[in-house]
Specification:
The chain is an alpha+beta fold. 20% of the residues lie in helices and 21% in strands. The chain has two domains: 234 residues, Deoxyuridine triphosphatase (dUTPase) (Deoxyuridine 5'-Triphosphate Nucleotidohydrolase, Chain A); 41 residues. The C terminus is likely disordered.
Length: 307
């Protein structure tokens, strides 16, 4: 048993040593700086990982005068900001998911109206504001609003792009559709599509996220085999769960009974002990020239528009 534990510890140590991966040139892949929790970022400040440890995520701009801002997915969400005492930020899984990937922002303020019919003409678009080509149209019908992406993405062999709407950011009347693109070999662009949930009118503002993307390794899902077990089969895991369960019950009971020390605590923070860093998980996209130390283009990491 001890040999198995030691072997597992060696594997974990090896994985931690290689987990920091990001891209150079036009795109930079998320580095997943979670060694010992999110605080590992501060410990690694000023240190540049070796270039061979990076993965490249390249966004080729197809036309000189046709682009769109790309930013690291932010931690903030408007509904979370507006909540009482901003309590949703206490949920670490929610906050991590918010930041997982990059967002492409709308270059125009558009108004879209769907009449509930299936033909493409049943969806009408108005360009309220914005310069340059309009990347939005009705193509498929069935209440589907299509955004053309002005980039051709390239990932390393064996890596796809997961493409979807901004995480934990719902929009009344319309829902983003998910897609997985094999960007390691595909030489064609993809579209980001939203489908109306009812006949209505929606608007997308300039700077509003229309698309979120992040890399996923192809074939990983097929490597897993789901298995049911009783918790009794793992005593150590069971004991840890029981300890947490008892602690949770005592805390909730203390809140209901109005115990001063529990009320003063407000909420249990064990899960948040390493989550003080508010930096984005994904590194900002950069111009190719910035890899050699030149200035990054400001428009590709603009934080002015929050979801």
């Amino acid at each position: 048993m001890q040999r198995r534990v030691n072997a597992l510890q060696r594997k974990v140590s090896s994985a931690k040593a290689t987990v920091r991966k990001r891209a150079n040139c036009i795109g930079i892949l998320s580095s997943k700086e979670h060694k010992g929790g999110m605080k590992a970022r501060s410990e690694g400040k000023g240190k540049t990982p070796p270039a061979e440890s990076f993965h490249k995520l390249i966004a080729y701009q197809i036309y000189q005068d046709d682009s769109a801002p790309i930013r690291s997915a932010p931690r903030e969400r408007r509904w979370m900001e507006d909540a009482d005492k901003k309590f949703p930020y206490r949920c670490l899984p929610l906050v991590i998911a918010n930041q997982y990937g990059w967002e492409i922002l709308s270059t125009h303020h558009i108004r879209a109206t769907w009449d509930g019919t299936s033909k493409p003409k049943g969806l009408c678009l108005e360009n309220l504001q914005g310069d340059g080509p309009l990347h939005c149209h009705s193509h498929f019908g069935e209440g589907v609003l299509t955004f053309q992406i002005p980039f051709l993405f390239k990932t390393p062999d064996g890596w796809n792009l997961m493409v979807r709407g901004p995480t934990n950011s719902s929009k009344d009347g319309i829902a983003a559709l998910d897609g997985i693109i094999e960007t390691d070999w595909a030489h064609s662009t993809f579209t980001m599509n939203w489908r109306f949930t009812r006949a209505c009118t929606v608007e997308f503002a300039i700077g509003e996220p229309i698309c979120l993307f992040f890399p996923i390794q192809r074939g990983v899902l097929e490597m897993f085999r789901g298995e049911f077990r009783m918790l009794e089969a793992d005593r150590e895991f069971k004991n840890k769960f029981r300890e947490w369960s008892v602690s949770r019950y005592r805390f909730l009971s203390g809140l209901e009974e109005g115990k001063p020390e529990v009320v003063a605590q407000g909420w249990q923070k064990d899960y948040m002990q390493a989550a003080k860093d508010k930096k984005p998980l994904a590194h900002p996209f950069a111009n190719e020239t910035s890899c050699t130390g030149q200035k990054r283009r400001d428009s590709n990491h603009d934080d002015s528009a929050n979801t």
